[in-house]
Amino acid sequence: MARHRAPRELPGLLVPLRQRDFRLLWTGMSTSLIGDGILLVALAWQVYALSGAPAAMSVVGFALSLPQVATLLFGGVISDRFDRRKIMLCTDLVRGAVLTVLTVLSLTGVVQVWHIVALVAVYGAASGFFGPAFDSIVPQLVPERDLVKANALDQFVRPAALQMAGPSIGGILIAIGGSGLAFALDAATFAVSATCLWLMRPVASSQGEDAGSVWEEFKEGMNYVRGNVWLWGTFLAATFAYLLFIGPTEVLLPFVVKNELHGSAGDLGLVLASGGIGAIAAALIVSQRGVPRRYMPFIYVTWTLATLAVAGYGMATASWHLAIACALVNGLEAAGTIAWATAKQKLVPEELLGRVSSVDWFISIALVPLSYAMAAPVASAIGVQNTLVGAGVLGAIVTFAFLFLPGMRSPGRLAVNPT
């Protein structure tokens, strides 16, 4: 009698890829994230080639981020009202078109800073629609039992593509053919992502023909957030924590490597890559072990420790100290983010998930521009190291304090949908 060998079980992180549509979504997302990593390098290189002034890059960054913030809330309403797959497909086509135009301008040598500012503004506005749609489509594609693994896979892919593979490829392409070649490959990644989305099966919208006006749906989402402490409390915790540490980290970490430790650009790259490795390691561990039933204490403890690790940047006396701190910051942040995404997907009604995700994005990053603006003056007043240590310690205290809001630690029992 022939013996039939049992099919080999997939590693935990790869289990969600059994689902055809999630596999297509993951393939397209991974490809476009590599493109995003390429863009980070190519955009900066192109801007500084046109204007050596940091102010030019600040204007480009502002033009990219402000439209995204402006469209996030509307994007959440749209993602709950229409087919999320189609929304993501349209945003990929728009962003791919933007990069195609930028490629042509760069390769023909006529590109100017104002061209870049105008184009990235369109790119940013489209991105505001993509995030909420992506966050809310995952539970439609993956069984609930596999949501932790799906979110862990997401946290594995993002640092691997965005922080490691993308910038490395971007640097090689720029060395070969300039920023124009890098923009061209980035545009191609959006074509791949759009193709994957097009091949997915149609995903029914979560609301039927009885859906109210856009304004009514927006108010419904805001009412739901206001009625659940674990949501609005976490959004506010992120707002104040990001205010305290995002600007100092992004502005001062390169300064520490170059001016305080007298390191090279390669040293900075290794420090940032260590953050990607930390996030990947966390994703692998959480995908195998899962997250505790009590989501919120786990989320807040990991995020508190991640923020506290920012203080390590200010205490470092060698590049490898920075690398360890960066790995801790990103690894602990990723572990908490996996649990947070899973909590939202399990506890927020599917028909409200897009709006809740958009409010999450909007409130969390609302004060980030102010954080960037404050970093340099504060560092000038109290010193770079003191600024980084203070950012980590104060951010950790603020984050942990929000765990003790009444109702924060029991979202499963207290989640309500106010009328």
What would a concise description of this structure say?
This protein is an all-alpha fold and 419 residues long.
Task: For the structure shown, list the relevant keywords.
419 residues, mainly alpha, Growth Hormone, Chain: A, 2 domains
**How many individual β-strands?**
0
The 3D shape can be described as globular
Please, what is the CATH homologous superfamily of the largest domain?
MFS general substrate transporter like domains
How many independent structural domains?
2
* Pattern of helices and strands: HHHHHHHHHHHHHHHH
Please state the average pLDDT score.
Answer: 82
The CATH topology of the largest domain turns out to be Growth Hormone, Chain: A
Span between termini: 64 Å
What's the CATH first level of the largest domain?
A: Mainly Alpha
Q: Tell me the CATH architecture of the largest domain.
A: Up-down Bundle
Q: How large is the count of helical segments?
A: 16
Structural class: mainly alpha
* Helix fraction bin: over 70%
Which segments are poorly predicted (pLDDT under 50) over 5 or more consecutive residues? 1-8, 413-419
Percent of residues in β-strands: under 5%
Largest sheet: none
Cα-atom radius of gyration: 21 Å
Overview of this protein structure:
There is one protein chain. The protein has 16 helices and no strands. The protein is an all-alpha fold and 419 residues long. The protein has two domains: 19-211, Growth Hormone, Chain: A (Up-down Bundle), CATH 1.20.1250; 215-419, Up-down Bundle (Growth Hormone, Chain: A), CATH 1.20.1250. α4 (113-141) packs across α13 (353-364). The chain is globular, with a radius of gyration of 21 Å.
